[in-house]
Write a structure and sequence with these properties.
alpha+beta, 3-stranded antiparallel sheet, 3 strands, 24% strand, globular
Length: 72
Amino acid sequence: MGLIKIFSGSEVLAQNLKTRIEEKGVNVVIKDNIQSARLAGFGNADAAVELFIQESDYGKASSAIEDFRMNI
């Protein structure tokens, strides 16, 4: 089993979803392309932060993910 991407978007929305998922007891992995580009010395036009969870945890996190998507 591996990681699955559950979100790609702004940092503010990513943090909101991360909090909701962690309340369900699921660990979230963040890939912050904005911060990576800044540290490398160039800008990033795709202001994208990606969230990943373990595929096996999707069942526990799915209600938080769906609720988040319905309220964006």
